[in-house]
Amino acid sequence: MQVNPSFFAIDATSGRILGRAPDARSFAATTVxxxxxxxxxxxxxxxxxxxxxxxxxxxxxxxxxxxxSGVAISGGTVLTGVGTSANGTSTxxxxxxxx
Length: 99
Description:
The protein is 0% helix and 47% strand. It contains no helices and nine strands. The N and C termini lie far apart (42 Å).
């Protein structure tokens, strides 16, 4: 079976696939916090926030440049790096605060 790089929500006990999202490409690890997952997207300058149990997209956080880094969560703040070495885009850290 050929599958596009995708997001999968998998039951840790049974291994059963609970949900999937096609074309959710990322170079970095996915972060899990508060029943949600956070993942920078490879070809779309966003952080996708998904329901960890189902994989359903809850929201996308817009970024000014591509993001090849992981996401950190601290005290209700989502932090990620932006910029890439491949195309020389700006670099820095972006923070989103839950409202």
